[in-house]
Amino acid sequence: MKNCHRIKIFYLIVFSVFSSSYSQEVLTIENAIKIALENNFEIKIASNNYNIAKTNSTIGNAGMLPTLTASVAANNRVQNSTLTLQNGVVNALDNALNNSLNYGVSLDWTIFNGFKMFTRLEQLKELEKLGSTQLQQTIISKLSEVSSTYFNLVQQQQQLKALDSTLVISNQRLALAQNRFAIGKASKLEVLNAQVDLNTDNVVLLKQQEVFQNTKTLLNKILARDLQTQFNVIEKIKVDENLKLTELSDLVEKQNPQLVSLLLSKNVAELQLKQIKGDRYPVITLSSGYVFNETQASLGFAAATSARGFNYGFNAALNLFNGWNQNRNEKIAKIMLDNSKLTLNSQRLELQAQLNAAYQTYLTNNQLVVIENKNEFYAKQNLDITLDKFKIGTITTLEFRTAQLNYVNAKVRNSNAQFQAKLSEIVLKELAGIINLD
Asked: Which of 60, 68, 147, 363 has its CA 20 to 30 A from that of 203?
């Protein structure tokens, strides 16, 4: 009766733990992705950087618009002055006042600089696209991290469930061993072995719970929310088994953010070379303005003067020689352009190699899922049969323990195989630039 009471208490504890866990928030992968898009700091920073590039992409920043400046200047002097005329007459005045006032507006407009302004505008647009691509790359990278961490939690939660079930069986085994010992059908050694195995299962469960809670904290950090937020995940891992290598390879070429960024960087380098070549052309600038000038003097030929009016003109300049710096700048720009092309080709080859390796891993992991599913099914059947035989005393405790561990290990391997298959899918989609990673 005492053992039956202990088993009832254990079941009540397990039931209360599961009840409290199910009362927590159930976080789906879709909600996790939504929260990450709204809260993640790295995504916000990348979004701000994109907004900077977008704000910079204007014709004014390219130098295509005139500059209009308003200015005012006032100068006042008090000084002792002496004025000697041609006829020898000397006029002197202490504390003589001299005032001048100038104000007006001026306009300057570069109307031609070797087409550099147009090239600069194209470059700013390419930099805006680059900012957008880098934002997309950050989003895909973070969503990949969210998905990987989420499904890691799923497999850990599945393993916790398996360990909980084996703990129930270990308690049953201990109760049976104690009953058999009480009626003289088993030795004390059997009871002690059952107790040791139960304690071992408790240790494994506690360690797994620690890993589970730490992974929860990690996911909360990625989601940029309170680290103490408690939640559960849906115990299901669904792997997309229809991914094709040829289709993924085409997507890598078209929309992989790293590859697109390098392509845009190459375009920026080409436009930079065009801008430098523009320095070989003349620069023509128009200028105009309206100015008012007024001066007052206590001593001199004129007591006051004033002038106002419109002025205009143009300026043209052509660099004829600057110490061969023009040739040097063009040479460096060409080398930088060549480097950008080499980097692009190298990254293209690297991504295709990663894709091929990841796809082979994806195929292998999908095959392992099928095998581990069967292994778990067989291990469960074996455990059920072994448990029945153990209850009637036809097998040893060692045989029972072996069947129990085989079942737990089969469930853990099956859960891990599903997780690894999902990771392979996530890696492939990240390489292909697919944002939908659930």
From this structure: 147
